[in-house]
């Protein structure tokens, strides 16, 4: 069993850290929120007053923070963890951040003899709690192999995408595709509804036809078509519009840097930004269905 430090115990990090504890690892946790720390300590983790005290004996340091600026500050700032992590330890950053920051943090840590992989996840809070996340890893083969048993504790699919930053690029591609599928599914369902079709009947037809896709088949955005999805619970829970808008911003940054043309992604980013600005930021991303309400 490994000695692990876990930094960032929010909606995702909290349940991920609890799964490591349940698997028998020694886990020292830190978050700026005392309540977030208490929730995980209650399940058997330890804590320290400073993150630096948690990381100094750790073989693995896992971070699950909101954005690139938090990751850079936590590891590389003047009082950053870079000054406290043992040489040879492996940092696993599972936050969804821009690949440029990820590469920068990895490079600077490596110069100090500290190994690094980016390992963003897909699967949401449900996957974090159930231990069924997908990890998309960027880093060396050796570091990937070293991290895999730890990641297996929190996920069911662990992919090696390529070198540093590749995990973040894979995550940006996946969420850009997901957003486009959600918008297109919503648009098609609303078209059917406004032409007199029953949403459940139309969903069945398209799911069994060439329009089949994950947002239609298992995460249907039309209220009442499926039980136990956010659309049937007033779009509560699930994956927030604000987070989708953030991830689409990262996808667009990635596109600009590589001179790639991503017209569908650009439109999706605009629609999700507009939806968030209209007060829907905390709702599930399937609430974009309401963008296509037809005039009656
Ligand atoms: P969250 O806001 O719930 O949690 C972030 C945590 O980081 C908070 O508890 C905050 O107190 C803590 N934090 C911030 N700065 C810190 C610091 N300097 N030191 C210690 N702790 C600090 O966010 P989340 O939903 O858990 O998401 C975390 C990351 O995972 C994000 O990058 C997000 O994009 C990504 N992600 C989220 C989901 C999801 O469904 N929520 C799914 C996939 C990926």
From TrEMBL:
InterPro entries: 3-OH-isobutyrate_DH-rel_CS (IPR002204), 6-PGluconate_DH-like_C_sf (IPR008927), 6PGD_dom2 (IPR013328), 6PGDH_NADP-bd (IPR006115), HIBADH (IPR011548), HIBADH-like_NADP-bd (IPR029154), HIBADH-related (IPR015815), NAD(P)-bd_dom_sf (IPR036291)
The 6-phosphogluconate dehydrogenase NADP-binding domain, residue ranges: 3-162
Signal peptide positions (record): none
UniProt keyword annotations, A-Z: Branched-chain amino acid catabolism, NAD, Oxidoreductase
One of the Pfam families matching this protein, by short name: NAD_binding_11
Source species, domain of life: Bacteria
Catalysis performed (reactions): 3-hydroxy-2-methylpropanoate + NAD(+) = 2-methyl-3-oxopropanoate + NADH + H(+)
Entry keyword Transit peptide: no
Pathway: Amino-acid degradation; L-valine degradation
Any coiled-coil regions, as ranges: none
Residues at the active site: 171
3-hydroxyisobutyrate dehydrogenase-like NAD-binding domain ranges (all copies): 165-291
GO biological process: L-valine catabolic process
PANTHER family assigned: 3-HYDROXYISOBUTYRATE DEHYDROGENASE, MITOCHONDRIAL (PTHR22981:SF7), 3-HYDROXYISOBUTYRATE DEHYDROGENASE-RELATED (PTHR22981)
Listed NCBIfam families: HIBADH
UniProt record similarity statement: Belongs to the HIBADH-related family.
Name this polypeptide is given: 3-hydroxyisobutyrate dehydrogenase
Organism, as annotated: Colwellia psychrerythraea (strain 34H / ATCC BAA-681) (Vibrio psychroerythus)
UniProt lineage: Bacteria, Pseudomonadati, Pseudomonadota, Gammaproteobacteria, Alteromonadales
């Amino acid at each position: 069993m490994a000695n692990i430090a876990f930094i960032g115990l929010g909606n995702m990090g909290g349940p991920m850290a609890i799964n490591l504890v349940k698997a028998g690892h020694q886990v020292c946790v830190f978050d700026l929120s005392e309540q977030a720390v208490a929730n995980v300590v209650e399940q058997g983790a330890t804590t320290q007053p400073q993150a630096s005290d948690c990381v100094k004996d750790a073989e693995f340091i896992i971070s699950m923070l909101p954005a690139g600026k938090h990751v850079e500050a936590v590891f590389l700032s003047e009082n950053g963890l870079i000054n406290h992590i043992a040489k040879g330890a492996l940092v696993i950053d599972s936050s969804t951040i821009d690949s440029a920051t990820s590469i920068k943090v990895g490079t600077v840590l490596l110069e100090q003899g500290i190994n690094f992989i980016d390992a963003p996840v897909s699967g949401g809070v449900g996957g974090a709690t159930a231990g069924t996340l997908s990890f998309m890893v960027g880093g060396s083969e050796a570091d990937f192999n070293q991290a895999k048993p730890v990641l297996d504790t929190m996920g069911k699919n662990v992919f090696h995408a390529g070198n540093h930053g590749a995990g973040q690029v894979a995550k940006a591609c996946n969420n850009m595709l997901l957003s486009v599928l959600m918008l297109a599914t919503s648009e098609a369902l609303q078209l059917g509804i406004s032409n007199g079709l029953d949403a459940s009947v139309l969903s069945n037809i398209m799911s069994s036809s060439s329009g089949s896709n994950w947002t239609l088949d298992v995460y249907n955005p039309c209220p009442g078509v499926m039980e136990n999805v956010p659309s049937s619970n007033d779009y509560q829970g699930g994956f927030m519009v604000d987070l989708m808008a953030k991830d689409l911003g990262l996808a667009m940054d990635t596109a600009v840097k590589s001179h790639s043309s991503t017209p569908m992604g650009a439109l999706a980013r605009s629609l999700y930004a507009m939806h968030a600005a209209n007060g829907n930021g905390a709702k599930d991303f399937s609430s974009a269905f309401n963008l296509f309400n037809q005039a009656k």
